[in-house]
């Protein structure tokens, strides 16, 4: 290829790349409203966005991976934690973390109830944006350290995030073990499989024994009569019985998402029950 041919090739290649870039940019702009569910944006959601900026949440947190990276990415937090948890957390974060133990403590912002309500609506809208799978894994907090789900490398508490390898068979317990790490919201966002490691929810280690003790307790308020029934009830109607502890419920509502009855099939719930019932 001589100089003239090289020059022509460079000009043509640049032109093609420029046209492709402009075309993709134009196409993206035509899709933004659908991808972001723009039709669902209400004045409350807009106010929630203003609250996000007013209190400089981005100085610590990130949305869609953009922000300060000091605290977790909150892109999917509304799915991982749920409305009841988020509202209670925003009212008083100190109830969920111990400053001396965890060192990192979210400051109490003294948000009004309206600000909290609308900020949660904004985060819920954010969680439903079609962001092509970003972030690729939930970025969470455990023991005062940032943890990337399924990667047990950043702290001892991160080991609690790991889901044990699935056995290569059709055992419902194996399938349930996989669901524990893949269901939406992902169970590992709040529950550890390690004894004594408490995250946003109680550890699942010893679940079978605790379930039997709970059913036998006079304080039990649910309707289950056996261990499997209690675990199933905890998944599909989590507020039927509230586990004691300020971190697990508020105003008679469990922080456990109540959407699994819709997002999981009956068979999948049975598989999760089989797995959790095997946690001795």
TrEMBL record:
Transmembrane stretches, start-end: 7-27
Keyword tags: Electron transport, Heme, Iron, Membrane, Metal-binding, Transmembrane, Transmembrane helix, Transport
SUPFAM superfamilies tied to this protein: Cytochrome c
Name of the molecule in the record: C-type cytochrome
Domain Cytochrome c, residue spans: 43-127, 171-280
Entry annotated with the keyword Transmembrane helix: yes
InterPro entries xrefs: Cyt_c-like_dom (IPR009056), Cyt_c-like_dom_sf (IPR036909), Cytochrome_c550/c551-like (IPR051811)
Record-linked Pfam families: Cytochrom_C
Keyword Membrane on entry: yes
Top-level taxon: Bacteria
